[in-house]
Amino acid sequence: MITAIVHVSAEVSQIPEVATAIAAIDGVSEVYSVTGPIDLIVLVRVRSHDDIATVVADKLNKVPGVKDTETHIAFRAYSRHDLEAAFAIGLD
Known about the structure:
Layout: E1 2-10, H1 15-23, E2 28-33, E3 40-46, H2 49-59, E4 66-73, H3 80-88
Antiparallel strand pairs: 1-3, 1-4, 2-3
């Protein structure tokens, strides 16, 4: 599984509609409205790098109201939740 974090700048008056449209795209797992210089943070989880291109370049960037995106591909995940899940395997 490949995870990409996409920073999205959107038309301010359309942020809720942009977020809803992005959340409906296959491959998008989460969309967060945030404070700061960007408007939305989008988590994309797909099987291949080509799928990232499909989700971001072919779909997300074409959502009406999206002004700009910046995509970051994750190398590794470090979270307490992931570590607890890994150690809990087979204990049920």
